[in-house]
Design goal:
Blueprint lengths: L1 H16 L1 H9 L4 H24 L9 H18 L2 H6 L7 H14 L1 H15 L17 H18 L3 H4 L10 H5 L3 H30 L1 H4 L4 H11 L5 H21 L3 H21 L1
Helix pairs in contact: 3-4, 3-13, 4-7, 6-11, 7-11, 8-15, 11-13, 11-14, 11-15, 13-14
């Protein structure tokens, strides 16, 4: 209840004062933004850890040095991935055509997680002896995909209702057609399809980090107590998106976290996440 109260207050303050968007607009092209995001995500996660350490007397995960060390390293990767600094480095290599440039920039943004999150996490995994041989949830063991398909079916009408809201359509669809297919001499569905595939690839890193690394990996040290801190930082990850999506991420993140903890894999969650993400793209496109 304390953690839920914390999220309620922080979500209200963020959307009332528009703090996240204001900070992003001011610092997003600066290396300082990486530090800001690291502190932002750490504040959410370790607030959850601190709450648990007070109200769960029999287990104080904040005192586990490995748990703190590895999670802090992870938030460095997450901050780097969600900053714009990596894009600024490669921007000069993109086409000078402004229409093609935006499309290329989106592809690079979606694929950059391979360098900023996926590879660093597995460097840690294969460099230390403390993690179980679960590949952070990328092993085909215990996956019950049908349960996640039911979750997608449950979410479809909710996504459709959300797509009717103006604030939803301000964010989705994330694909903006600037007639790249004409510049490339191809069909429209090809450039749109390439974008959506890379957009889906970005969710691999999201599931790997939040359900694979934080839940499957770090539960090695603190057990199921990692669930609440994970949900809190997962909600903070959505602060730049519509408020309804941020609120729903609390419940969706918790459900996916529980299922990942029980099954020790992230494939089902990845299927559900991709289904919801592409569903939001599709229903937003229908409203255009």
């Amino acid at each position: 209840m304390i953690a839920l109260l914390f999220l309620t207050v922080t979500i209200f303050l963020n959307y009332y004062f528009d703090w996240y968007d204001a900070i992003q607009a001011q610092y997003k092209s600066s290396p300082v933004y990486i530090l800001i995001l690291f502190l932002f995500y750490s504040f959410a996660f370790y607030s959850g850890v601190f709450i648990l350490s007070i109200f769960k007397k029999e287990n104080k995960p904040i005192l586990n040095k490995k748990f703190i060390l590895f999670s802090a390293a992870g938030f460095i990767f997450l901050a780097l991935d969600n900053s714009y600094y990596f894009l600024e480095i490669v921007k000069k290599q993109l086409s000078v055509n402004p229409f093609l440039h935006d499309w290329q920039r989106s592809l690079v943004s979606n694929l950059s997680c391979f360098v900023t999150v996926i590879v660093p996490l597995y460097i840690i995994y294969f460099s230390v002896p403390w993690f179980k041989k679960e590949l952070f949830g990328f092993r085909l063991n215990g996956a019950r995909v049908l349960n996640y398909l039911w979750l997608i079916l449950f979410m479809i009408p909710l996504i459709w209702i959300a797509s009717l809201r103006p604030d939803f359509l301000e964010t989705y669809p994330t694909y903006n057609d600037n007639f790249e297919y004409r510049l490339l001499g191809t069909e429209q569905w090809i450039t749109a399809g390439i974008y959506e595939l890379t957009y889906g690839f970005d969710f691999i890193s999201v599931e790997l980090f939040f359900r694979g690394f934080l839940i499957v990996g770090l539960s090695r040290f603190v057990g199921k107590d990692v669930l609440i801190p994970m949900v809190m930082v997962y909600a903070f990850l959505h602060f730049g998106k519509p408020a309804g999506e941020t609120i729903s991420s609390i419940f969706g993140g918790y459900i996916l976290g529980v299922l990942a903890f029980q099954s020790r894999n992230i494939f089902g969650g990845l299927i559900a996440h991709l289904g919801v993400a592409w569903g939001m793209e599709y229903f937003a496109w229908l409203q255009l």
